[in-house]
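Work Package 4 report. The design task specified in the project plan requires that, given a folded chain encoded as C-alpha cells, an amino acid be chosen for each position. We show below one input record used in the internal validation round.
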C-alpha cells in the first residue's frame, strides 16, 4: 500500500494522479473564466451597456504572436477547415463561456464516480 492509497483500496496511483491533474486544470480554467467575467462586468458598468469580449479579441490583446502561431499550426497540421469554421466560431464566443465550459469538461473527466448503494444497486 502506498502513501496515496486509503486502507482497503487497491486502486491505480496513475489514475488518481490523472484525476488530480484534470481537477487542477478545471480550477485553472474556472479561475480564468471568473477573471474574464469580472473584466467584462467592469467594462459593462463603465460603458453603461452590455460588453462581452470574444475570446479571440482577448487572446489577440494578450498574446498576438501565439494566436498567429496557433492559426498556422491548425491550418498546417490539421486542416484549413478546422480553423475557419470551427476555431473562428470558438474564438467568437465570450471568453468566460469558453473557459467555463472547459472547466466543466475537465471537472467531469476528473470526477471519481461513486459506487451506487441503495435498494436497487447490484452488489458485485
Amino acid at each position: 500500500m502506498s502513501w496515496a492509497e486509503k486502507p482497503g483500496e487497491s486502486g491505480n496511483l496513475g489514475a488518481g494522479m490523472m484525476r488530480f491533474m484534470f481537477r487542477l486544470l478545471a480550477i485553472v480554467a474556472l479561475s480564468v473564466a471568473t477573471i474574464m467575467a469580472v473584466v467584462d462586468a467592469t467594462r459593462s458598468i463603465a460603458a453603461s451597456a452590455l460588453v462581452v469580449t470574444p475570446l479571440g479579441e482577448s487572446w489577440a490583446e494578450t498574446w498576438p504572436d501565439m494566436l498567429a502561431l496557433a492559426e498556422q499550426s491548425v491550418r498546417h497540421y490539421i486542416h484549413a477547415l478546422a480553423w475557419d469554421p470551427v476555431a473562428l466560431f470558438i474564438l467568437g464566443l465570450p471568453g468566460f463561456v469558453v473557459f467555463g465550459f472547459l472547466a466543466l469538461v475537465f471537472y467531469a473527466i476528473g470526477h471519481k464516480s461513486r459506487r451506487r448503494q441503495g435498494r436497487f444497486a447490484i452488489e458485485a
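The radius of gyration is 20 Å. Validation will be extended to a larger panel in the next phase.
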